[in-house]
Amino acid sequence: MPRDIYREALDLASNIRDRYLRAVTYAKIGYYFYRLKNPRYKEAFKRSFNALETIENPPLMVRAMIELGTYLAKVGAPSASKVFQQADEIISDFPQPLKDELIEVLVLRLLELEMVDDALFYVVDIEDNVKRNDLLLKILRVYLKAGKMRKARLILEQLTDEPWHSIGSIETIKEHLKREEFGSAIRVLQGLKSEYWLGDAMKEVASYLKTTDVPRATYEKFVEIALGMSTENGFGILKSLLVGLAAQGELEFVTGVLSRLSAEQRLEIARGIVLTVLDNETVLEKLVDSFQGPEREELSRFILDNLLESPPDVKYRSLVEKIGEVTNDDTLLVKVVRYLSKLGDFGEAAKFADRVRGNYLRSLAFGSIATERLQRGDIDGAIDAALEVRDSRWGSWLLSEILTKILELQVEGRIREEDMERKAENQRAFWEEG
């Protein structure tokens, strides 16, 4: 006669003396019987109900009911909701903090079962502020993940305490941004009262908008919010937003916003834009054109310093020449000469070098030309460049340096990369000490 494993399981469970464990075990058996398509799963669940009635400890009985309801829900039994409801009715008569603890157990279990609406129904009965808000936040996250934005908004309205309201708002904003629901994101953003949390929210917005093509009107709304923030945090957020917009080519709008800021703030944001779009010579050129006077020269200096840190690229020639054409600053002209020399455009480089007035900086400008010519094996051109420095001391110093490099090239077959500016500064200090 074949062995009846299923009957044996039911019989063995009846021998469990602990009433709580016996009720839970029957529920588990019912679940697995159902999975195995054994029709006796109904009998197992019935025995679990019967075992429940024998539990004399009310809190323990509630926990057993939650377990039974869990396995009933897993097999899709409509009676699961009724079991949870009965458990809640019993819990409502318990004193605190036991009442809140058991409702929390019930709510967490419902969330595991993805019975989110039921979880929301019971969570409002929790009196402990921290527990209730923590659970509401968990429910909010489930709704957001499921894309149920209307229900998520209802939860957000119930999260009136901090920091839960702000945390929930930020997570809701992130989801709205993903869905490109910018108007909804702005409405949630405007509901944030704490500038600290508003700052965090705007960082999320900036991070998203920098990588996404969005309408200009959307940027304008977010920028207005950032401009309304009085702290340094607000400026940092505004910077992120404007850098992101500039990276998308919206320079006209960006410069319009910059005109409303202080010179220091304008330059800081412009530097951020430069670092972001350094590979885009067109945007850099337009950015330089949008500044005037000392601010333009400071920005140009920053651009050239960054360009000089990388191998020269002919695509920047127009930008570099434009910087040189509109400035009378010797230090800036030296940087222009250095970059054009690295490009091998010695004729244009010499034109700018000849405009340098100070002997020290003039020696650096023509030194750049001489060094680059020498790198290309043009000894005569290097010497001619060195002789362009009329001052006797600086001319002599530069000629000495170039002659030394000529000999170095003959012996070593190459010229070592040296910082001519540093060497010239050391020479100037030596003469001043003497």
Describe it:
With 434 residues, the chain is mainly alpha-helical. Helices cover 74% and strands 0% of the residues. The chain contains 25 helices and no strands. It is elongated.
What does the secondary structure layout of this molecule look like, with pairings?
Blueprint lengths: L4 H9 L5 H17 L5 H12 L5 H17 L4 H13 L6 H15 L3 H8 L5 H18 L2 H10 L5 H15 L3 H9 L4 H15 L6 H12 L4 H16 L3 H8 L4 H14 L4 H9 L3 H15 L9 H9 L4 H14 L2 H8 L5 H17 L3 H8 L5 H21 L7 H14 L1
Shape: elongated
Strand residues, percent: under 5%
Count of extended strands: 0
What's the N-to-C terminus distance?
116 Å
Give a short synopsis of this structure.
Helix content is about 75%, strand content about 0%.
List keywords for this structure.
434 residues, 74% helix, 0% strand
